[in-house]
Amino acid sequence: MLRTSSIIVAVLVGGLVILAKAQPPTSRADHATASIPPIARFQELSALPPETARSLYSLRAAGDWLYRMHQANGRFFPGYHPQEKQAVSEDRVDRQLLATIALAQVGRFTGEVRWTIRAKQSILALRSETTSRSETMPLHVVGPMDEIPPVVVAAMLAQAIYEVADPEKPLIADAEDLIRFVISQQHQNGSFPGTDAEGCAQIVQALIKADLNKPDSPLRQSIGRGLNWLISQFREKPSSALAATILPILSDVYPQGKDSRIATISYQLADWICDCQYTHRDAPKLIWVGGFRSHPQLSATPEEPGAEASLMTRGLAAATRLTRQVPHLTRYPKYRQATVDGLQFLGELQFTPNSALQIEPHIRHHYLLGAIAQSGSNWTVRPDTTALSIMAHLQYLQSGAALGSP
User: Fold this and answer.
1) What global pTM score does this model have?
2) Which of 69, 178, 74 is nearest to 125 (CA)?
3) Closest by alpha carbon to 349, among 318, 308, 307, 315?
4) Cys bridge to 63: 31, 106, 167, 278, which one at CB 3.0-4.6 A?
5) Taking the CA atoms of the chain, what radius of gyration do you get in angstroms?
6) Burial 298-323 (b: 16+ CB within 10 A, else e)
7) DSSP state letters, 335-381
8) How confident is the model at residue 32 (pLDDT cuts 50, 70, 90)?
9) Residues ≥6 apart with Cβ < 8 Å to 236
10) Contacts of 173 (CB under 8 A, 6+ apart)
């Protein structure tokens, strides 16, 4: 597997000049006038696959949970340990930003204004905490927050702004300043100071959102350098988590230049994730089916799958979307089924009205209902964990696979 991926990366790295030469993507402003939210296409549930109805239910339940966890200060409640009956003590800014991005995304997808309002409140709160403006420097992140590199915080805050439905012009101006700061920090090899591969992937996703809002050649060049570095990191140290963070980027980039090399590496990454997924054939426990281990090879001690399934499933949904753009008769059903299995596993981790009945009703309803547990044995809930599940469902619903056959 590693040897194969190295060959594919060798073909791709050094390329991606298509990002600088491609025709600019349609700007977000061109779509802003659309008043019908994307969820409207799923009104006829009886005509849709049953897994799509389950996905829509899970998406709304998770969105409602984030809405309830939003506090008056603009931050989300950091989480709850139901088994210990106490709140999560660690409150990190990257978890807050991830929840803000997800709430903005689900608000735009569903047209739920209340979710969009809460997302904007979080943006304003986090902006006041993490940024500064001077006469000589555009809006930028002053220093690390909760040990999160400034460039990551800036990128995630900018992405949150771009994800909100119809953001005000001052907010867009702030996002553009933040993106300029981010680009100024990029190393020549495509990486960013103080970040690992997952952090770089988060930054590149923000840059793509910025380019979608206002197409820009330097932005696409920065995206290309970052993506090349990410792929080189996967070549050196393959992992399912890194593969899953790269796939949504590739599926966003492909329509700009339709380079077949992007499809090739996407299939390699998606196959890697599929090999990490527990199936009925190898899962030690039935409830583990659809979850993921960290490496394709089975270890002597089986790993309990958990909420990381959101990340993997989002990556597989992105690969499914790509197989609809580049029709592939064998990989489409493979990736779609793996995505559906991943979402079903996540459904087992999501608290419903009929789960955790031994927990006090008021705690269960307020702190748990709709949230995603860390695993079957660890019921801890956090805003970032549930946010990632929202992103997985949205990637599936927007991939085209939720409507059934291609």
Assistant:
1) 0.89
2) 74
3) 307
4) 106
5) 20
6) eeeeebebbbbbbbbbbbbbbbbbbb
7) HHHHHHHHHHHHHHHB--TTS-TTS-HHHIIIIITT-BBSBSS---B
8) very low
9) none
10) none
CA–centroid distance for 142 within its chain: 25
The kind and range of the H/E element at 229 are: helix 217-236
For 47, half-sphere exposure in the C-beta direction (CA atoms, 13 angstrom radius) is: 5
What are the beta bridge partners of residue 148? 145
Nearest to 347 by CA among 314, 320, 372: 372
Query: Could you report how far apart the first and last alpha carbons of the chain are, in Å?
Result: 29
Residue 140 per-residue DSSP state: E
Residue 201 tokens, joined: 């992937």
Please write the tens of the pLDDT for every residue from 352-371.
999 888 999 999 999 999 99
3-state secondary structure 29-83: HHHCCCCCCHHHHHCCHHHCCHHHHHHHHHHHHHHHHHHHHECCCCCECCCEECC
Residue type, 113: V
Which of 281, 303, 263, 393 lies closest to 340, judged by CA? Answer: 393
CA distances from 293 to 243, 261, 271, 352 (A): 13, 27, 14, 25
In a 3-state reduction of DSSP, which class is residue 391?
A: helix
- CA-to-CA distance for 239 and 272, rounded, in angstroms? 8
- Residue whose pair of structure tokens reads 């695993």 in the numeric block: 375
